[in-house]
Design brief:
This protein is of the alpha+beta class. The chain contains 14 helices and nine strands. It comes from Croceivirga thetidis.
Length: 371
């Protein structure tokens, strides 16, 4: 069920993004190409000018853009879901480009064929019409440039997060801002032993597969991936979003379930099944843009340090997931769960002790217990 919901959300997201962008892109093309054109064509008679209203190309171009957006969105979904991981980058880009080009010809042929019957559009759609039509290639050049812009926007939004990227564009983080966030430090257990067994090339593929599984579940729980550091991933939530539906806990157990569903794959390919440990904590911290040559968003504060230190305690307590008592008290767990305080520990570099609890769950039943 989660997998279906995940695919549905991804499809809707890609369709909405694509339809809105390409509808606006072709709307803009019509303005650039046709708005005020009649004022420039002095050779046309007033009667001919009346037969060339600006509204027609504007409507046709925008409709074609919406159609392109729909098909491009479906192609992007198929590519990201089924082809991206199976094909090499160069081959994948080539396949994706050919699919987009073919769909462009299809949409233009279908759309122009339809509109030429109801509007005074001078267009003859013979077989292979697009190969010799200069107007088509003028639009294609515009679409290529627009695709480049769209790709850059998508990469930036995925890198920083949609809301964060918009705030950065507005200069929101030029000066440090205080926010409340929850952080999870997620680290591979026995990473040194596994790395020695697999050696660096296969170990890199192993980590790649693990983080692929992580990416399969993060969106279901509203998590943002702040950064990858070797075999460690750092996840983050706005404070209330992390508390809602116990998202900050759910993502860990969903990640476990996702890996368990591919256990045979891991054992057959690597002869190793990955296990992860995590530490979670939340609270106020500062966020700001840093860097000039490589600009990124950075978080500064005790919350990050404490989350990392809590994760480091997992080995000492033979636990997969540790959470601070302060954060635990704000979560609404199932009534059948019986939280038990694990103890107060003095984390490395800290002057005050902090309470922590170990959380375990049965990935099949989904029940959460605290020991």
């Amino acid at each position: 069920m989660k997998s279906k919901n995940r695919n549905g959300k991804l499809l809707i997201k890609l369709l909405v993004q694509s339809i809105l962008f390409w509808g606006f892109a072709l709307f803009s093309y019509a303005i650039f190409r046709f708005y005020g054109l009649e004022n420039e064509l002095d050779t046309l008679t007033p009667e001919q000018l009346q037969e060339r209203p600006f509204g027609i190309p504007l409507f046709v171009a925008t409709t074609l853009g919406l159609g392109l957006g729909l098909l491009y969105g479906l192609i992007d979904f198929i590519y990201e879901k089924y082809l991206l991981k199976r094909l090499r980058l160069g081959v994948g880009l080539l396949v994706n480009t050919l699919l987009h080009f073919t769909s462009t010809i299809f949409v233009f042929s279908l759309g122009i064929g339809f509109f030429s019957k109801i509007f005074p559009i001078n267009f003859e759609l013979q077989p292979g019409w697009w190969w010799f039509d200069k107007r088509f290639w003028a639009v294609m050049w515009y679409i290529i440039l627009a695709s480049l812009v769209f790709s850059i926007l998508k990469i930036a939004a995925e890198r920083f997060g949609p809301g964060v990227f918009f705030k950065m564009l507005m200069g929101h983080y030029k000066n440090p801002q205080e926010e409340e966030r929850i952080f999870m430090f997620l680290d591979l257990k026995d990473s040194t032993t596994i790395a020695e067994k697999l050696e660096h090339h296969k170990y890199s593929q192993f980590i790649q597969d693990c983080f692929y599984d992580l990416n399969e579940v993060v969106l279901d729980y509203g998590a943002e991936i702040y950064q990858y550091v070797g075999d460690e991933a750092v996840l983050s939530w706005p404070y209330q979003k992390g508390l809602a539906n116990n998202n900050c806990l759910g993502v860990f157990f969903a990640f476990e379930a996702q890996r368990l569903s591919r256990k045979e794959y891991y054992l057959s390919k690597y002869d190793v099944f990955p296990e992860f440990k995590a530490g979670i904590h939340g609270g106020p911290l500062m966020v700001a843009e840093v860097g000039f040559v490589k600009k990124e968003l950075a978080y500064h504060g005790d919350v990050i340090n404490t989350s990392a230190r809590i994760q480091a305690e997992c080995n000492k307590h033979d636990a997969n997931l540790l959470i601070s008592t302060k954060l635990l008290d704000e979560l609404e767990l199932d009534k059948s769960s019986k939280p038990t305080f694990l103890g107060s520990v003095l984390l490395k570099g800290k002057r005050k002790e902090i309470g922590i609890s170990s959380i375990i769950t049965n990935p099949i039943s989904g029940n959460i217990d605290l020991l």
